[in-house]
């Protein structure tokens, strides 16, 4: 019976798939992120054939070594996999998988929720109402910004970026500009999106900039103090990708100095820490890495991660093999 270690409690749908496939499952007994040393201790003891890990686990060569040569797969329950050293896995002949596709709509919805919420000052208005400050309708109270027919700039036109662009173009008649390392002319025809050859061109011309690139050395601090200077003073930044893509200190400074109008972010540079300079600002909305957090989507992610493990340990190519 293959043995699987699950680094933290996940939705039952995924565990059930593994149990139905007659796998022996050990789940981290504490509902907390394991430190690297704790994870290594579990893996050394368990002789597992596979590990189901999460974006909060740092998976590197020490972890692969601790897992032992019988361990064939580390299956990450996330679309992003910057927490995993994929090249070290390749060297060791360990398979790495992720869970793309099943969360695209949910993350695109969350992105749009943030965009609408910051433009319409939803969080600020809510805080205001709860604080007992609402004493009647006023013509000038908490004025926001329209979204319809404005320009959305997408940085990274992958699955999620293109879904956000679709909603913008079809739902809100927005003009869409995008930068990506690869131009997608078919998508341009479908949506009317316009390709920009540089990030800067998107930044300069967009009313809302939404970031959808993976985190890798080339994208760390892709959005930085210079980027905020390039953006319109009236523009908003939305980030549902990975925190380190945006220089968080520079973001706090840009929001404080009104270099840009606002931001709405779901991810942070040093999660779970949040840059202290952001905490007391009114012109930012922050959600705690929730973009894929719906019951339906987390169930699907748990099922897909299990399918990847089952395929890999039954000699088939896992559906989402990265290495
Ligand atoms: C969430 O951030 C994911 O990568 O799935």
TrEMBL record:
The keyword Signal does not apply. SUPFAM superfamilies: Formate/glycerate dehydrogenase catalytic domain-like (SSF52283), NAD(P)-binding Rossmann-fold domains (SSF51735). Residues 4-321 form the D-isomer specific 2-hydroxyacid dehydrogenase catalytic domain. InterPro entries: D-isomer_2-hydroxyacid_DH, D-isomer_2_OHA_DH_cat_dom, D-isomer_DH_CS, D-isomer_DH_CS1, D-isomer_DH_NAD-bd, NAD(P)-bd_dom_sf. Coiled coil: none annotated. One of its GO terms (molecular function) is NAD binding. Keywords: NAD, Oxidoreductase. One of its GO terms (cellular component) is cytosol. Residues 112-291 form the D-isomer specific 2-hydroxyacid dehydrogenase NAD-binding domain. Belongs to the D-isomer specific 2-hydroxyacid dehydrogenase family. PANTHER family: 2-HYDROXYACID DEHYDROGENASE-RELATED, GLYOXYLATE_HYDROXYPYRUVATE REDUCTASE B. This is D-glycerate dehydrogenase.
